[in-house]
Design brief:
By secondary structure, this protein is mostly helical. The chain has helices at residues 7-31, 35-60, 62-65, 69-73, 77-109, 113-128, 131-149, 153-178, 182-189, 196-226, 230-255, 259-282. It starts with 6 loop residues before the first helix and ends in an 11-residue tail after the last helix. 29% of the residues are buried.
């Protein structure tokens, strides 16, 4: 739906999914006291419900896609191969990237329950400022894809640069806007008093790295993938995750004893490495020469 410009539908489905998730959390966790199982149950109910509604929505809008049962019965293997050329590397990237994040969590577990809580709170607080840039990352894919399909490289470059600028401005606005409310926000999480300075120092590091590197590290690859350069983004992401974030994260955070603060410094430094590599790729000419459709 985003790809044909009907972003309102995607927004409605997302809002409805999160509303269902929230309501069932209140039911299963607050009233029925099912704990983590209740959270998991709520998540599955919300996602399966919206999956059904999403299929219904696609069916009702099938005229916009030229979708019919005759088309579904006959697979265009040539087109499917071109789609898989982008989607398989991206799926592999997501799988191994999330696997790396699990290993990072395993490192943090060894630091004790206080640091586990500090990591969860810091991550939740940091992710508030990543909402808008993440949305820009998703929106950029169909926009650049349509530009590339029309051989309009200049517009693809201009729009990508605009989105990168918007991402940076969003980080500055949200991060600096949240900074005065840090103490209030921490009271909502009710962490152990000893962990609050650690969370604050993590947040200060991330504020700077957000504005400088996050957009180029995560928004820019969306443009490269949309142009068919998914293999390059996958290789870069996997190398940076497994060699730098995990390797140096273990060395700095665990071996040298800098703990969770050291791990977050390494993680945000990895954003800088990805950003530099993707910027170099973007300013070259190879990323848009992989036209697929």
């Amino acid at each position: 739906m985003r790809g044909i410009g009907r972003t309102k539908v995607s927004l409605q489905l997302s809002l409805l999914m999160n509303t269902i998730y929230l309501l069932f959390n209140f039911l299963f966790v607050t009233f029925m006291h099912l704990g983590v199982f209740g959270l998991t149950l709520s998540l599955n109910i919300s996602r399966y419900s919206i999956a059904v509604l999403a299929i219904v929505t696609l069916y009702r809008n099938r005229a916009h896609f030229g979708l019919n049962f005759k088309t579904l019965r006959h697979i265009d293997w040539g087109l499917t191969k071109r789609v898989l050329k982008v989607s398989v590397p991206f799926a592999a990237e997501s799988t191994f990237f999330n696997g790396g994040k699990i290993i990072m969590q395993m490192m943090i577990v060894t630091l004790g329950t206080a640091m586990i809580a500090a990591n969860a709170i810091a991550s939740s607080w940091i992710q508030l400022s990543e909402i808008i840039p993440n949305a820009l990352s998703v929106a950029l894919v169909p926009i650049v894809g349509q530009c590339i399909s029309r051989n309009n490289i200049n517009d693809a470059k201009k729009l990508t640069k605009s989105f990168l600028g918007l991402g940076t401005l969003a980080f500055l606005a949200v991060d600096l806007g949240l900074l005065p409310f840090f103490s209030i926000g921490m009271r909502l999480f009710a962490p152990a008093p000893a962990t609050i300075p650690i969370i604050f120092h993590i947040y200060l590091v991330v504020i700077g790295m957000h504005a400088l590197f996050w957009s180029s590290s995560f928004v820019l690859p969306s443009a490269l993938r949309a142009a068919g350069d998914a293999k390059f983004t996958t290789v870069v992401s996997l190398i940076s995750m497994w060699s730098f974030r995990i390797g140096f994260g273990y060395l700095i955070g665990i071996v040298l004893g800098y703990g969770i603060f050291g791990i977050f410094v390494v993680m945000s430094s990895e954003w800088a490495i990805r950003a530099i590599v993707f910027q170099l790729r973007f300013h070259g000419g190879r990323w848009y020469r992989n036209k697929l459709i």
